[in-house]
Structure formats: structure tokens, C-alpha cells
Amino acid sequence: MTATPSPARTIRVDLGERAYDILIGPGLIASAAGEIAARLKGRRMAVVTDEHVAPLYLEPFMAGLAAAGIEAVSTILPAGEKTKSFEHLIPVCEAIIRARIERNDAVIALGGGVIGDLTGFAAGIVRRGSRFIQVPTSLLAQVDSSVGGKTGINSPQGKNLIGVFHQPDLVLADTDVLDTLSPREFRAGYAEVAKYGLIDRPDFFAWLEDNWQAVFAGGEARIEAIAVSCQAKADVVAADERENGRRALLNLGHTFGHALEAATAYESARLVHGEGVSIGMVLAHQFSARMNLASPDVAALVESHLRTVGLPTRLGDIPGGLPPAEVLMDAIAQDKKVKGGKLTFILTRGLGQSFVADDVPASAVLGFLEEKLSA
Ligand code: NAD
Hints:
With 375 residues, the protein is of the alpha/beta class. The protein folds into two domains: 9-180, Rossmann fold (3-Layer(aba) Sandwich), CATH 3.40.50.1970; 199-374, Up-down Bundle (Dehydroquinate synthase-like, alpha domain). Helix content is 47%, strand content 19%. The protein contains 13 helices and twelve strands. The chain has helices at residues 28-39, 54-67, 86-98, 113-125, 139-145, 183-200, 202-217, 220-239, 254-263, 273-290, 296-308, 325-335, 362-374, and strands at residues 9-13, 20-25, 44-50, 71-77, 106-111, 131-136, 150-155, 158-165, 170-174, 338-339, 342-348, 354-361. The chain has a seven-stranded mixed β-sheet with strand order 1-2-9-6-5-3-4, sandwiched between helices. Helix 1 packs across helix 2, helix 5 (139-145) runs parallel beside helix 8 and helix 9 (254-263) crosses helix 10 (273-290). The radius of gyration is 20 Å and the shape is globular. The structure holds nicotinamide-adenine-dinucleotide. Nicotinamide-adenine-dinucleotide binds next to helix 4, helix 5, strand 8, helix 6 and helix 10. The site of nicotinamide-adenine-dinucleotide has 32 residues, from helix 4, helix 5, strand 8, helix 6 and helix 10.
């Protein structure tokens, strides 16, 4: 009998009666069923995954559930951002209903942020809310999307415009599975790791500058980066679950990034979410400098680090043309409410000094984008 590896770290998301654990460490796919059975009474589960993750991890995961006495069915969806749509939500809801998932049973997302967001949404609406377990398999999902309860799908008008808040009951982040992630997707997830440093943890950003290669290589530095990121997200979510204030800081780089994703029609070949966030964070720092809020040196430092790890940082890095600035502004206006010509943006006063600015003139953003598009 092989010993069950114990998780390297446990982080609690402190939401009172709905508090839950994030377990982070190697080998968690193998011990997942035990962790689930120890926490949930239900013995019926509906697992949702995608076509890339399924051949790698679905079979051992399902075998573990069966060995723990859990009866589970699986649904395999196409991979990629376009899957976050009504078209794919419907079969997932139907599979959950067919599996007769009841109050103590659970819906499980085994995959990246796309699978987590879509499956969480289905879990949130079937029977007015079913238990939900996240088994994030991409770096982005482990450090960001699996934690915090934001679920949903996209509409042609913009990202994540249809969805609900639905917190998971458990998050199991197996750090070994990141070894099969493509370098491009690993880098995309790293953009969200760097984001936590840029929001309010300058020491973490400095640590990443020194240790990013070790984070990419795996082992203890990777676990540390994921744990710091999850703790940062857990703190914000516990303080402001419904984004009435502080949680908005997590959108650093996302207003520009979401507009770029919409402008590239969610074509993963051109741009994936984390890449949009990378370019968006650089733009947010450059725009902060333009508004005389921060030194241009900060934007240069941020861009330098993201470029060093191999992330895109400029509009011109996106293959294929981009629409004019007015079209990007329409997408930004969908993403963030415009009140009296003013937008809400996450800007910065320095490295790791981000803040919510709710009076940004739309005209200034338009002018900035026009300049960046013609650069
Ligand atoms: P993704 O789910 O598309 O995964 C990226 C790619 O990696 C996919 O092709 C997937 O099949 C593959 N993959 C995943 N795990 C793998 C593994 N272990 N080995 C090999 N391949 C693997 O994208 P993502 O970057 O994980 O997530 C992006 C999504 O997350 C976006 O839709 C974004 O809007 C959302 N998001 C949500 C939140 C939130 O709070 N809910 C936060 C941030 C991002």
C-alpha cells in the first residue's frame, strides 16, 4: 500500500458557516477521494473536465472516487475559453440532474479556470445550488479562479457577464499536475501570481523577481508561490466576498485584459486570459504614470519582469490586428460601469500600491488606447 501524501499547505477561506479549505501540494489527485470523503457525507458526484485534462487525470481520479465508495459520472467538454457558453452549460446541468446529485452530494470541476467557472455556475443553479468541489489543474485556476466563488460564462458582449457567486466546499490543488501544462499556459497563470505582488505585496513581487525560475521548475518554490497567492485571495474574499470594495483590487489588469479577450473573440490561439491580464497590468501601470499617479519607472519594472518570464506585455504582441480604440472602449464599458463619463479602474501609486479609482475619465482612457494602438 502506498502512503497517502499529506497536503503541503492548507489555507482556510474564512466565510463563517461557508468556510472551506484549500489544500495545496503534490500528489493530491491520488488522495483527493479520501479528502472529499472525509469532508462530505454524499456518495454521488458529477465530475466535469475537458478534453486535454481527461486523458491525463480523469481515470485515476475516478478510480480513487470509486475506491472510496463514491459513485461518480463524468462529462468531458472541449478545451478553451469558447466552452464558457450556454451551449456547453446545458449538457453539464443535464448531466448533474441525471446523476441525481442531492444535498450532500457534489459537483466536481477537474480542470482549468474554464471548467471551474462553467461547472461552478452549473452547480450554483441546479437545484438552486449544489455542493461544489474545485480540483484546479492549471496554475491560473490554482492561484485564482478556483478560490472565491465567482462562477459564470461569457456572452458575445463580454467576459463573465452571466454567472452567480457560488463558493466551493473544498479546493484541491495538486501541484504535480502543473508539470503537464504547456509552458504558455503556465506563464499565463504566472501573470495572476505576479498580480498579487502588484496589488499590495511588493515583497512578494521582489521574491518572484529572484525566484521565478524556481517557481517554473517546480518543487518548494512553486508551492510557496501558489500558497502565498491563495492566501492573498482568501484574505480578500473573506473581507469582501461580494466585491463591494476591496475585492475589486483583484481586477488589476483585467479591465484592459477582458476588453482584449473580447476583441480577439476569445480565440485561445491569439490570446489566453492570463496573457490579457499581463498586457492589462502593464497598461494599468503605464496609464497610472500617464495620470501622474506613479513613476513611469514602476511600469517599466513591471513590464521588464513579465517580459523576462516570456509573457506578452504590449498590444502589438497579440497576433492579428486589433479593433480601433473606440471598440475596445465599448468592451471596457461593458466590463465596468461608466457613470457620467467616468470609469472605475484599478490603478497604482507605486509598486504594490494598487487602489480602486472610481473617477477615471473615459476620454483619458480612449486617448491612451489610441496612442498605444498606434505605437
Ligand atoms: P483553461 O481552463 O482554458 O486551461 C488552459 C489550458 O490548459 C486548457 O487547454 C486546458 O485544457 C489545459 N490544461 C489545464 N490543466 C492542465 C494540465 N494539468 N495539463 C495539461 N493541460 C492542462 O484556462 P485557465 O487559464 O485555467 O483559466 C482561464 C479562465 O479562468 C478564464 O475564463 C477566466 O475568465 C477565468 N478566471 C476566473 C476567475 C474567477 O474568480 N472565477 C479568476 C481568474 C480567471
